[in-house]
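hey so u asked for the seq, here:
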Amino acid sequence: MGGTIRPQKLETFQRYLKLTVTPGVVLFFIALEAHAQLALPGAVAPTPVGANASSGKKSAGGGEAHMRPVMLKAPAEETIIGKTLKRDGLGSEIEFSRNGADLQVARLIFIGDRLSRSGEQCRVEVSGAPIKLVAKESLTGLRRYQIELPACAFNLDVLEGAVLVSNEGKACEMKSSDCRADPSGLWGMTEGEFDPKKAADMLAARADVEKTMRGNFRALYDRNKKEKEIRNSIVREQAGFSSRREEICRSYAKESEFGYCALRLTEARAILLGAQFASGSKAAEPNKTAPPPAH
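ran it, structure tokens below
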């Protein structure tokens, strides 16, 4: 044991291998060799396809190199001008136009319930159009406006071909018209605009933006993971997003087939996370009626 193999014995051993090694045995030795290589001290497993190879590595300055978010652009107002947008795709309606540089509401119709007779539908077309919108500051990364109606003032964020409306969870009571309507929610594509041939494309787009959103969340979390309170706040907001998105989108027309509402809100969430990372903000804007992407 431990000595060298004599030439005669080595030659005999080689002849033995030629006679006994079958293809199956060869495969066994190949597998064994591969396993041994992976088990070597200090050996590094190959990076899976699509993985971020730089994640967790040390930067040139000695610190940890954090992931970078995907910085999506805020949707432009042009994506909503000249279109009829409906709340949940089948309710209240709004149309936008421009007057020079100013964005304005060209038409606004509320669909709600009668104050004097619960369960009976009412319809109110707001007079005085066009109505100028007031630009508001926002930390969401989206373009935000306020519509100042005496009976129903609300904020809206511009999404891609849609608007996300917030009214602090309050329905508007238009007593002179005997009508109560809640403007909060997504106003976007109408029920009749959905093309069954494009359902798969829309669902695929949602999957892509979900991936972007999760990556942006990880980037923001990674940068703040050493600060417990901030880290926990980021995690709570992300965990709460899915349930709030479901609450807003569950009544949207053909949502189970197309996922349109979820797509738009997830895009907004991804933009918000990117904006927080870029600005150094450590918590999302609070909002009681809409998901983190917009408020």
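The two ends are 75 Å apart (CA to CA). The first strand starts at residue 84 and ends at 87.
lmk if thats what u needed
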